[in-house]
């Protein structure tokens, strides 16, 4: 499973994507909070303006002022009209109608209608202002209703057809009624209920878009300057892990901290490559220094007269030589210069099966599809021989099956042996681990075969796994990538 399969943000796995995502979320949250605060402030200003306007109109149209500007004001009827005249109430013009002033009315009583909705908060706010202005009144009522549900507005619209506009009956009105002191009756004013501020949403969206373009553009350039060298460093580390004998100095770029990191990696890579080179020299010397005396011993044992003793000594020398070869092969896996070749794995497996059949061992290749993958032929053959040898040694026979998935080639080697206890399967892949503890090469070998096969699989970017069969026996499954991306040469 990929390391990022359980990532909480599978769509934002890179540093650049995660930083941009976090900034985007933070910006959205900040803009949302800002929009809410702006809306609340606008609502408060709208309510304050509405309260002041209602209070001003109530005070400005106080009927108890009999004279204004030194002239007596003629009496008007209950609807605010002069007797016998078809005209608008004082102070109300057609322009006022269009601006939302639907009329001022004086009445002996104020009747609340069934669909009216009182607004206690607005009543309290207007009452406070009236009290501050020493306006004497007994009671104040403010209700919300539609223009089509207000008799006074309907009457005015009927006598002034030009005042009727599309949808006027659905307009929301605020009707404020103040009961004056004494027998002065009620003073009633009407005003269009102002709509909620909508420009804030558009302003917030425009502001967010501008910030996104400016902030994201700058942030993207900065983050690219930081992350691009990290991406190159990551690729170089992956390449070096696959082929540690080729040290290449990576160009130092990016911010100072990133440049220091790249410089430290270059130094580490050079030292590791030098150590590996020294290891190869040491292994070559060991192989030469040990195989030379072993060859001399093989010559000397020919002088031993006891045939049985001579054969046992020859077998011991052969065991030491084979173990030494396995150790040297294991140490050199991944250090070869051979380039991978695209090979038909079915044909390759068939050739190896024939080798074992020629030796009289029961190895069978099941019907399999043609599977082509880039491999280092010498090493893959070595790994398959080790797996088949184990199957023949412990199970008496081996069956080879090939298959493939979208990205991998699969080679399975099955046997009918006793299998491996589940708690020891992983241990069998470690160096010098043996399922048979006698240390007899004829029955168990040196314990490096599976380890070498796993190292070869890792070298190719694949994997080796062991599992017990339900019907008995063991299955060794070798997986190899079908392209060059996983090849570690």
Going by helix content, strand content and strand pairing, the class is alpha+beta
Oligomeric assembly: single chain
CATH architectural grouping of the largest domain: 2-Layer Sandwich
The whole-angstrom Rg is 47 Å
* String of helices and strands: HEEHEEHEHEEHHHEHEEHEEHEE
Q: Strand count, sense and closure of the main sheet?
A: 5 strands, antiparallel
Helical stretch tally: 10
CATH homologous superfamily label of the largest domain: Histidine kinase-like ATPase, C-terminal domain
State the low-pLDDT regions, or none.
1-5, 66-101, 437-441
CATH topological fold name of the largest domain: Heat Shock Protein 90
Tally of strands? 14
| Strand-residue proportion | 15-25%
Task: Give the strand order, joined by hyphens, for the main sheet.
Answer: 3-7-6-5-4
Shape: elongated
Total of domains? 4
Distance between the termini: 23 Å
Q: Share of helix among residues?
A: 40-55%
Determine the mean pLDDT: 76
CATH class of the largest domain: Alpha Beta
Give keywords:
alpha+beta; 5-stranded mixed β-sheet; 489 residues; 14 strands; elongated
């Amino acid at each position: 499973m990929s390391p990022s399969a359980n990532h909480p943000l599978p769509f934002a796995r890179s540093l650049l994507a995660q930083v941009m995502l976090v900034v985007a979320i933070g910006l959205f949250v900040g803009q949302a909070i800002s929009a809410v605060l702006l809306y609340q402030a606008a609502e408060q200003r709208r309510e304050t303006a509405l309260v002041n306007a209602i209070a001003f109109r109530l005070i400005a149209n106080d009927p108890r002022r009999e004279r204004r500007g030194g002239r007596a004001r003629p009496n008007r009827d209950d609807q605010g009209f002069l007797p016998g005249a078809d005209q608008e109430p004082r102070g109300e013009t057609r322009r006022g109608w269009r601006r939302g002033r639907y009329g001022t009315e004086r009445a002996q009583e104020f009747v609340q209608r069934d669909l009216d909705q009182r607004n206690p908060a607005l009543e309290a706010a207007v009452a406070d202002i009236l009290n501050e202005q020493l306006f004497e009144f007994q009671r104040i009522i403010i209700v919300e209703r539609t223009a089509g549900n207000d008799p006074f507005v309907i009457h005015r619209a009927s006598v002034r057809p030009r005042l009727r506009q599309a949808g006027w009956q659905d307009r929301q009105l605020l009707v404020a009624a103040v009961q004056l002191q004494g027998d002065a009756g009620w003073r009633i004013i009407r005003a269009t209920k102002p709509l909620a501020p909508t420009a804030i949403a558009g302003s917030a969206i425009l502001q967010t878009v501008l910030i996104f373009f400016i902030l994201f553009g700058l942030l993207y350039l900065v983050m690219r300057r930081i992350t691009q060298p990290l991406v190159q460093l990551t690729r170089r580390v992956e390449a070096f892990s696959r082929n540690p004998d080729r040290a290449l100095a990576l160009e130092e770029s990016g911010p100072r901290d990133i440049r220091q990191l790249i410089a430290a990696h270059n130094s580490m890579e050079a030292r590791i490559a030098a150590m590996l080179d020294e290891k190869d020299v040491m292994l070559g010397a060991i192989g030469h220094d040990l195989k030379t005396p072993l060859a001399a011993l093989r010559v000397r044992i020919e002088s031993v007269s006891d045939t049985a003793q001579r054969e046992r000594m020859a077998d011991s020398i052969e065991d030491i030589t084979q173990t030494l070869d396995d150790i040297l092969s294991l140490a050199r896996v991944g250090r070869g210069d051979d380039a991978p070749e695209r090979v038909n794995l079915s044909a390759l497996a068939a050739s190896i099966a024939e080798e074992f059949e020629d030796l009289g061992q029961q190895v069978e290749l099941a019907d399999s599809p043609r599977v082509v993958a880039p491999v280092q032929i010498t090493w893959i053959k070595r790994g398959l021989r080790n797996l088949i040898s184990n199957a023949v040694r412990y199970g008496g026979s081996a069956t080879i099956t090939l298959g493939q998935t979208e990205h991998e080639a699969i080679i399975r080697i099955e046997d009918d042996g006793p299998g491996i206890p589940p708690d020891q399967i992983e241990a069998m892949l470690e160096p010098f681990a043996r399922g048979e503890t006698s240390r007899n090469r004829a029955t168990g070998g040196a314990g490096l075969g599976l380890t070498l096969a796993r190292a070869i699989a890792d070298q190719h970017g694949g994997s080796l796994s062991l599992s017990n069969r339900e019907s008995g026996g063991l299955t060794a499954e070798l997986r190899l990538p079908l392209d060059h991306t996983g090849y570690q040469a």
